[in-house]
Amino acid sequence: MHLARTVRTIASCKEAIWHAYEKLYGRDLSLPSMVRSAQERYLKRHLLQALSPTNPLRDFFERDWMNWER
To answer: Which of 21, 32, 56, 65 has its CA 20 to 30 A from that of 38?
Structure first.
């Protein structure tokens, strides 16, 4: 019962978590160059798995979100 309530609480914050995910993994110029270059390599390596041509990062987030829900 407590676990279910905690999962619902986190799930209700999905959009806020998305914004934090986007800030962490997006092309934010305020990130150190080492973090940005590592993220660019990750996106290049996994770009074929992206479903959305408009925002592949959102697709990665949705995949990670589904993995968390399972």
So the answer is: 65
